[in-house]
Design brief:
This protein is mostly helical. The protein is built from 15 helices and no strands. It has a domain of 83 residues: Alpha Horseshoe (Serine Threonine Protein Phosphatase 5, Tetratricopeptide repeat), CATH 1.25.40.
Amino acid sequence: MRHSLVTSMLLAGALAASGCAKPDGEAEVNRALQDLNVVDDANLNDVMLTVADPNEAVAYFTRAVATAPERLDLRRGLATSLVRAGRAPEAVEAWTLVTASPGATNEDRVEHADALIRANRWDEAEAVLDSIPPTHETYSRYKLEAMIADSNEQWSNADSFYETASGLTTTPASVLNNWGYSKLTRGDYPGAERLFAEAIRHEPSLFTAKNNLMLARGAQRNYDLPVVPMSQTERAQLLHTLALAAIKQSDISIGRSLLREAIDTHPQHFEAAARSLAALEENVAN
């Protein structure tokens, strides 16, 4: 972007110094400046879609769409930014407009389905995905297909879609975690444990998978912490999760011990664990 800015300044200087230039020369300079503006816009759009604050991106693309409503890339940017900002109902409306445009792609329809799921409109999301040709095989498409199969309790379909999705990406931790949670809700605790552990191997910082792993182990009455990367604070939080799982299984003494260990492990005051221990002690006393 810095190179584009410098080039723009040089061209602007050339334009100012050429007062007696031919009209054709001025037209060429103007065209060059317009081309540079397009490049700068594209760079700014990329920034807004990746590192910018989501709500700032929404405001930026809202203004841009109002200025150039015919540009589908700006409408996509607005729809994507609304999803990033957690504004699912508005994102659905924005993606509906995108997919109704002549230049809409199958990937736009996948993103539309994603927004519908985020807005808890599962039947509509399923209809959108069904409208996409089966030849459109992408990670995003199969991840959503798996989630919809899960919601319909079509377990074999869900497993097939999760497996396909995980093979279509180099970063499968998120979909493996989702697949594990699906197994957890079905009561397949060993299967869930295996998938959570695999997710952590791919992304050691994924705390959600670590916490879910504790739920799967706790459901099997295995209350030992597994060997996974964790900070001291994470260790305390995972002990807390294991404690609650033990209490749910009526293993009260183990739960009490784990809560005390969680409180002692946390580098600061662990309010949630302290409240859980106080409530447990009161219930036992009564």
